[in-house]
Specification:
The complex is a heterodimer of chains A (305) and B (934). Chain A is of the alpha+beta class and 305 residues long. Chain A has twelve helices and 13 strands. Chain A is globular and about 60 Å long. Helix content of chain B is 27%, strand content 24%. Chain B has 23 helices and 36 strands. Classes of the chains: A alpha+beta (305), B alpha+beta (934).
Chain lengths: 305, 934
């Protein structure tokens, strides 16, 4: 069945914005289409007058580290490209680990990181890692170029800051892990039903130079609320603590007191999710600490969840 | 329309097509490259995979204009100058092609993998193919084929094929010849129904019910009829004949006029110039309903408060009460030292064959067809014809059903779907009409595996002898009868398990509800009862303090056993042999066997279960198949029978039987299946019956042809007929010989026919309740599962399955092994991943993305032993295999989970959430499943 009438492939952001303006709300931005086109088919959106494909715009497809230890990942970079990036594997491992378990290869080959964020699921895999990496999103919103912290991108389940009939996500920028820093991502899937995680967890840690204590930690556990978020109280518990299993268990205890995961139909009970908070925090924190200490990170679980 | 420039398989195309096209649509409809299949249009199943600039993508959601200026590779581009690509050749050699519908997607995904990684290990193959599904093979042969292709492409030659051990290969029997049409399937040339296009063809869609149970107050089609491009809109008032169909009871309206009873009910049908117009026209049909109370579960259906769904059915919502009575149940339990009684639940399960239903109707006088002709991939062409003729008010001879290739069936393509609708629309419009279901429509409409509630009570003595089984089964039959009567009968008669049980009382209630109808699904009810039987067996063994294998050995059926239906088993009871092989392979090399062990947070354990399954219809139903075999002057032979090959391999079975009887090279036998004008009736392809009945029909008919040929050859060569023998297409006598083709030419010249038609009648059976032989053969199986349970998450992984399967004889060992592997993986879905959820009559599972079937990442190591305990009446001793391999996997896995965790699962599919909570809480029994999480 016909889902859109026209298909445009602009080669610049200006062209893309001009096209969106021209269609006056009757066209949407599309990247890989692995969410949008499936949703169109399921009748979640009306038939679109046009789809504006942003994956041929150079600024959206570049992936490059700069001199300041920061990296820029264009919104149109596919999950597969992220998985294949050596610099991300070594220095933003959680992003590779999360993008490496999205869908199957065919979906990862076209689905983009920008699409994952625009889709604004409470537990989008790539999103969960971007939150732990404390990324910033570069967007064109209402015709204005803006840089916003990643968490400001989400307004509600499936609702992002941007309006895809008007705005474009250009890319993401975040600091790569340096000495004594490392990340990890793991998730728990249900073998039945919809392929959304029961729980996903991305962890970023920085140890002190002696590698004995946590200096800073960023924890993103999802889904906990309607939008992605950080477990700030749990992060606080880790700061300054010895980088030991005991400290991790203490943080887990805090997490279990503070976080109140809900039961969601055909996905998981709240009690099970609570158990998984403990399991995933333990597994990702231990892994991140080990990676920070050794300076070695080899992504785990790619392609097999 | 806009300009699209793409290169496909090296050829540049400049097309003028709508920008709304997907890449799959351009390939299939604009370029005629129908080798690329569409399975779901949700980017879920992966069978539409093609390569764009070398990268695998799902072409079903890939906008065609996204491929502007790029290079696309499809299955049609794999072979060069008629020479198969090593991937294609190895898919054939390793038996990785069954129905063939997913084969192009698997091969294209594999092509991309091997371009990047010339020597992939199992893990790399699983990562690459994780979301490219196959419902037939179980993936083991696919992995072997890809590794072998890689080896060949590296210049190291292909790898050896995993040929099963079988006894006594004959000329063509017990030999792993390639399946029929396999070359077409690997090149993309194979045609399934949606691959046919006719001049002037219209596209049809069906308006489904808006409620699971409602009275129809009015239907207004005026606006739809007036919509430009709509050619016909038909309702119940337009059904020319009887507005009912059904395989056992005729209770299913062709088009509903007064009441709808489930969400898949058809209310109106539209034929239009395009699919888009037909779909839009559906939205213009106005139907007024008065919603009625909904029966959402079979126990409520049985209660006095429930509304009666079929007023004409004499027992109300009780579709059928099935009883087995054997011995004296009270005395039996009085002898028992140990009694276990538990309640089990199994969910509705979806076939998820990868080819959605499609029918094409062609009116008389169009496209060279003299009569109303229906093209459909059906498991029962003659019963389709019967049902179409009744609904059309035509004699059967005025209707022709041509079976196309079938992209998987598993029991789900036995009932009528679009066949009658396209017949009506073709007749009304005078044009060919195609009706292709979307995946989402397929999920809602076709009958599924029965959800059951089974209370099972089993008693045994302290020395391990079973003395009594009492069971009560409720089966959710859904809105229409379909095959519920037969399916639930099989669940009931097999509810003792394959054991000697002197006393049994089993009652089964097949109920009408407002859920999608339930019907045939590989295992035919026995899958469900075996879960209860084999779980109770393990519980009892533990209570008695006896090894579960020993407990089964003590009670195993053997020659001389009387079953609970009163049948004395006289031969071919290979259960103990299957048990022996499986037990042997469970033992580690050092002989130190443990049922369970721990390694960190992972628990490992074995579990075991047995099963049996009838071959053939049984129960007194006449079971026959007719075949026609004709020899030609070119030395080839054609065998014709209207039995379906949905991938399981019936075509090569009949070809092998014919090749055997005529001692012909296999490649000289052609098979024509499923054409009600050209092939005689082979009966339904169900009940693991076709190897037996159509195999026998081909065998006997070919033997009759051989006799006719021998008589003529004796005259031609002037030798006594008894001295003639057949060898590789020649008839030989001491020193003299004649080519088969030459002989046929001589016969034709002399007015003799080289064609024989014969109806084979299987041994008679008796109805349930009369004692005697309810079935003419049973297949037996033992399976052991090695599972890993993550004790921190509850996640269950099946690492290894050891299967012993008694199938009488393996006509084609490699392809039969494919049945076993595919059956096991499908059964793993039944146990671990699959549940079709209906909420008070409304399917929640209305998308394939809501239904997970096993992918290649689930594929365990499978060690398969074929046990050939011959049945004297089977073709060369063979009995059925299609179902027996898919029955005991679930209880074997659940028994293993118990050994690993101490928690027993009573409801499928296994819920890791509930399992973990039970482990944490120290509970030992879980009565909820995934669909109970809410």
């Amino acid at each position: 069945m016909k889902l859109w009438n026209h298909y445009h492939t602009p080669h610049s952001i200006d062209q893309a914005i001009a096209l969106l303006n021209q269609y006056q709300g009757k066209a949407k931005v599309v990247a890989g289409g692995t969410d949008l086109i499936v949703e169109l088919r399921e009748g979640h959106h009306p038939i679109q007058e046009a789809l504006i494909d942003v994956t041929q715009i150079p600024e959206l497809t570049s992936l490059a580290a700069d001199d300041n230890n920061e990296i820029y990942v264009g919104a149109g970079v596919t999950h597969s490209q992220i998985v294949k990036s050596a610099v991300l594997a070594a220095r933003a491992t959680c992003l590779v680990e999360s993008c490496g378990v999205v869908g199957g290869p065919q979906v990862r080959n076209v689905g983009t990181l920008g699409g994952n964020v625009a889709h604004a699921l409470p537990a989008g895999d790539g999103t969960t890692s971007l939150v732990a990496l404390d990324a910033k999103a570069e967007i064109i919103m209402n015709g204005q170029r803006r840089v916003v912290p990643i968490l400001e991108m989400f307004r509600g389940p499936g609702q992002s800051l941007i309006d895809s009939t008007r705005d474009v996500i250009i890319g993401f920028r975040f600091a790569l892990c340096g000495d004594n820093e490392a990340t990890a991502f793991k998730r728990i899937m249900r073998p039945q039903g919809v392929a959304l995680p029961i729980l996903g967890c991305a962890t970023w840690v920085r140890l002190n130079p002696a590698q004995t204590h946590f200096e800073v930690a960023r924890l993103s556990i999802a889904p906990i609320g309607p939008t992605p978020g950080r477990a700030a109280e749990v992060e606080a518990v880790l700061i300054g603590q010895p980088a030991t299993d005991a400290a991790i268990e203490h943080a887990i205890e805090t997490a279990l007191q503070i976080l109140k995961p809900r039961t969601s139909k055909y996905r998981a009970t709240g009690d099970y999710r609570k158990e998984m908070i403990a399991v995933l925090l333990r597994r990702t924190l231990q892994l991140a600490v080990q990676r920070a200490r050794t300076g070695q990170a080899v992504p785990e679980g790619i392609g097999m969840e | 329309m806009s300009k699209l420039d793409i290169t496909v398989n090296g050829q540049i195309h400049h097309l003028d097509v709508p920008e709304s096209r997907t890449l799959a649509q351009v390939l299939r409809y604009d370029l005629g490259l129908t080798g690329t299949k569409i399975g779901c249009e949700e980017a879920e199943c992966g069978i539409c995979t093609v390569l764009v600039n070398g990268t695998p993508v799902n072409s079903c959601i890939f906008p065609a204009f996204k491929a502007q200026g790029r290079e696309v590779e499809t299955v049609e581009g794999l072979a060069h100058n008629g020479e198969l690509h090593p991937i294609q050749q190895n898919f054939i050699e390793h038996g990785a092609v069954q129905c063939g519908f997913c084969t192009p997607g698997l091969m294209m995904t594999a092509t991309a993998l091997l371009n990047e990684n010339p020597d992939p290990d199992d893990h790399a193959i699983k990562v690459a193919l994780k979301d490219t599904y196959c419902r037939c093979t179980g993936y083991a042969s696919v992995i072997a084929a890809i590794k072998s292709a890689a080896s060949e492409m590296r210049g190291e030659g292909p790898l050896p094929v995993n040929e099963p051990d079988v006894s006594e290969p004959m000329h063509a029997i017990s030999r792993s010849v390639p399946p029929q049409y396999v070359r077409e399937k690997v090149t993309g040339a194979a045609k399934y129904t949606d691959d046919y296009f006719f001049e002037g063809m219209l596209f049809a869609r069906t308006l489904r019910a808006a409620y699971p149970h409602a009275r129809i107050l009015s239907i207004n089609t005026e606006k739809a009829k007036a919509f430009p491009g709509v050619v016909a809109v038909l309702t119940h008032a337009d059904v020319p004949g009887d507005n009912l169909h059904g395989l056992v009871y005729r209770d299913w309206p062709v088009l509903c006029g007064d009441v709808v009873r489930y969400m898949g009910d058809a209310v109106a049908i539209v034929a239009a110039e395009t699919e888009d117009i037909a779909a839009e026209a559906l939205t213009l049909i106005e139907v007024e309903y008065e919603p009625l109370p909904v029966i959402g579960d079979p126990k409520f259906a049985h209660s006095p408060e429930a509304p009666v769904l079929h007023s004409k059915h004499p027992t109300g919502n009780l579709l059928k009460h099935i009883k087995v009575r054997h011995g004296d149940i009270e005395q039996g339990f009085a002898q028992a030292d140990y009694i276990v009684e538990r309640e089990y639940r199994t969910p509705t399960v979806e076939h998820a064959f990868l080819e959605p239903e499609c029918s094409i109707g062609i009116p008389p006088g169009v496209a060279g067809h003299e009569k109303l002709t229906i093209l459909v991939g059906s498991q029962i062409p003659y019963q389709d014809r019967n049902q179409i003729a009744l609904a059309m008010g035509l004699p059967e001879e005025k209707v022709r059903v041509i079976g196309t290739l079938i992209g998987g069936g598993f029991g789900g393509k036995e009932d009528i779907t679009g066949q009658i609708h396209v017949a009506m629309l073709a007749q009304a419009t005078g044009r060919p009409v195609k009706m292709l279901y979307t995946r989402q429509e397929s999920l809602i409409v076709h009958p599924k595996r029965h959800a059951t509630i089974i209370r099972m009570k089993t008693g045994a003595t302290k020395d391990g002898k079973l003395v009594a089984v009492e069971a009560e089964l409720y089966g959710d039959g859904g809105a229409y009868a379909s095959l519920s009567d037969k399916v639930m009968t099989r669940a009931t008669t097999h509810a003792t398990g394959p054991y000697v049980v002197p006393n049994a009382k089993i009652d089964c209630y097949a109920m009408y509800t407002n859920n999608p109808p339930s019907g045939a699904f590989r295992g035919f009810g026995v899958t469900q009862s075996a879960f209860a039987v084999e779980s109770n067996m393990d519980i009892l063994a533990e209570m008695i303090g006896i090894d579960p294998i020993e407990f089964r050995r003590i009670n195993a059926q053997k020659v001389g056993t009387t079953t609970a239906t009163g049948q004395v088993l006289r031969e071919s009871v290979g259960l103990l042999e299957t048990l022996r092989h499986v037990e042997h392979d469970m033992m580690p090399a050092d002989g130190d066997f443990r049922w369970a062990w721990r390694d960190g947070h992972k628990a490992y354990a074995w579990g075991l279960a047995c099963a049996y399954k009838n071959t053939g219809l049984g129960g007194g139903a006449p079971d026959r198949a007719e075949a026609e075999v004709e020899a030609f002057e070119d030395g080839s032979v054609e065998v014709r029978v209207a039995s379906a090959d949905m991938g399981q391999g019936l075509a090569h079975v009949v070809a092998q039987c014919t090749a055997e009887e005529l001692k012909l090279p296999y490649h000289r036998v052609r098979v024509l299946l499923c054409d009600t004008d050209l092939t005689p009736n082979g009966g339904p392809t169900t009940a693991s019956r076709q190897t037996f009945v159509s195999g026998n029909a081909a065998r006997v008919t070919s033997a009759l042809l051989r006799e006719a040929l021998t008589r003529s050859a004796a005259e031609f060569l002037d030798v006594p007929p008894e001295t003639l023998y057949y060898e590789e297409g020649l008839l030989r006598h001491n020193g003299k010989s004649v080519e088969l083709g030459t002989l046929v030419g001589w016969m034709k010249a002399n007015g003799l026919s080289s064609k024989v038609r014969h109806e084979y009648h299987a041994p008679a059976t008796q109805p349930l309740g009369t004692g005697g032989d309810m079935h003419f053969a049973f297949s037996y199986a033992t399976q052991a599962a090695l599972v890993e349970v993550d004790m921190e998450t509850g996640a269950v992984k099946v690492l290894r399955i050891i299967a012993g399967t008694d199938i009488g004889r393996a006509i084609n060992p490699l392809m039969l092994q494919g049945q076993v592997e595919g059956g096991i993986v499908m059964a793993m879905g039944n146990c671990l991943t699959e549940s079709y959820i209906v909420e008070n009559g409304v399917p929640w599972t209305n998308l394939l993305s809501r239904y997970k079937m096993p992918s290649i990442k689930h594929a365990p190591e499978i060690i398969s032993h074929l046990i050939e305990d011959r049945v004297s009446t089977g073709p060369y001793g063979a009995k059925g295999v299609g179902e027996i391999c898919s029955i005991n996997t679930s209880p074997a896995i659940c028994n293993a989970i118990y050994h690993a965790t101490g928690v027993r699962i009573f409801s499928l599919p296994v819920d890791q959430d509930a399992l973990l909570r039970a482990i944490r809480a120290g509970q030992t029994e879980v009565y909820t499943a995934w669909h109970d999480v809410r």
